[in-house]
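Researcher: Here's a chain I'd like modeled. Treat it as a single chain, no partners, no ligands.
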Amino acid sequence: MSTTPLLQVRNLKKHFPIHRGILFKKQVGAVKAVDGLDFDVMPGETLGLVGESGCGKSTTGRLILRLIEATAGQVTFDGQDLLQLPADRMREMRKQMQIVFQNPYASLDPRMTIGDSIAEPLRVHGVGDEAAVQKRVKELLERVGLSPTYSGRYPHEFSGGQRQRIGIARALAIKPRFIVADEPVSALDVSVQAQVLNLLDDLQDEFGLTYLFIAHNLATVQHISDRVAVMYLGKMVELGTSDQLYANPKHPYTQALLSAVPEPDPTLKRERVILQGDIPSPVNPPSGCRFHTRCPVAVDRCRVEDPAFVDTGSGHMVACHHHPAVALPMVGLPGSVA
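Model: Modeled as a single isolated chain. Structure tokens:
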């Protein structure tokens, strides 16, 4: 694996303005959905991004691809700052960067056949003549486990798992290097989830793909990710290899998330960490450490000082004033999806 990151994210922010008034629409605040992220993604790896709903995971994926514009920060892909590129050059860069959406039905146009949906990016980017486009569509359908004869059918004729396979085929159409997988299996049955995850694994090996895999299911993330990043209220609180994070979580929030993962082995016992209170509003996040209002080990320092995101050893990053001493009781590892 290369030592040069394919993707570098620095101080990435997205603040959605809140306006009041009919005529002048004065800005009275902002939803701080993403508020200063720093991370790298190496070529050929899968970085899992996890956290509770509303923490900014999906917004991060869309910011990287410039599906929405960032408030501030830098996103460097293969040496180019994507946030500074003009529209025509960004369109060219999208040949290398694609997305698989969470809802496989909503992401497909119900008026288009699946063959046309898969062919659309090829036609938009002028990749080959029509004969080459149709050949590519058939190859992609076969590669994701669907019959090429299905190309004339419409999305409503397929199951959820089949539709997600179609979405994956469309993302692969123009041979990208980097794919944002935004909760790609959360809407699927458990048995189908495993099939789609195995497909993504196989495609990564075959085409040398790099993934940002967004999810809220930690067992799913463990199965597919080389490294895992944990987000809370727009900020990253922990980042490490899958083995590091699942065997030795350092941040109290990560420990609480892992304690809630069902353990398939009944002989292993894990003490459940129950977080008190609700997630604060991203409009007015707490001062200091954003997790201190729910943290079982918070002290006065946590309420006033935002912890730095530091390396505790071997690339295991954590933003916590207690690291590495804090260690809530946990036994065994969470179960994975086979």
